[in-house]
Amino acid sequence: MAQDVTEQAIVESLMQVEQRLEANRTAESKLIDLYTRGGVSPDVFPRNKGTLKAERTWCEEEIERLHQQVGGVRDKFVTLEQVNALRRRLGEKLVKATPENRRFVLEALETQVVSRADGSLNVTLAMPETAPGTVLTDPRNCPHKIPEAIGKCSKELLS
């Protein structure tokens, strides 16, 4: 799945940057230890400390950016649990719906049903990017043709 590859690549990059940050912290600790023992000259110490600090800052910012990127990837894709929850909710709502409302929802989802020779059915639904319920706010499109019922279809099926 494309999401898994992208998310996996980001997580791997994140782990590499975290390892680099840990190595940076270790190097900084060793530098301070050497400096206190007189193993590093006072002229070289600030330069090396500044380099390590710049790298540490970059690592911390990169880690934050990668965390946001992973969150963005996860937000873009629907999980299997979300699909199953939607399927259950849709099934519950369709059972209670009037035939007109049921037809409207199934048409909005571009439902395709294929009957096989063995008696099984293959049902395919498309997920629209916008809620089709807004169509029912127009009195000319409401199957009830009663002013009090306008918009009721979309509220009871899509909520």
What does this molecule look like?
The structure is a single chain. Helix content is 64%, strand content 5%. The chain is mainly alpha-helical and 159 residues long. A hairpin with a 5-residue loop joins strand 1 (112-115) and strand 2 (121-124). The two termini are 30 Å apart. Mean pLDDT is 77; it is low at 134-140, 145-151 and 154-159.
How are the secondary structure elements laid out?
Layout: H1 2-36, H2 44-76, H3 80-96, H4 99-108, E1 112-115, E2 121-124, H5 152-158
Average pLDDT, all residues: 77
Total helices: the number is 5
Number of strands: 2
* N-to-C series of helices and strands: HHHHEEH
**Proportion of helical residues:** 55-70%
Query: What's the main sheet like?
Result: 2 strands, antiparallel
**Strand order of the biggest β-sheet:** 1-2
Broad structural category: mainly alpha
Spans of at least 5 consecutive residues with low confidence: 134-140, 145-151, 154-159
User: What is the alpha-carbon Rg in Å?
Assistant: 29 Å
**In percent terms, what proportion of residues is strand?**
5-15%
> Cα distance, first to last residue?
30 Å
Shape: rod-shaped
In brief:
The protein has 159 residues and is mainly alpha-helical. Helix content is 64%, strand content 5%.
Please tag this protein with its features.
159 residues; mainly alpha; two-stranded antiparallel sheet; disordered C terminus; 5 helices
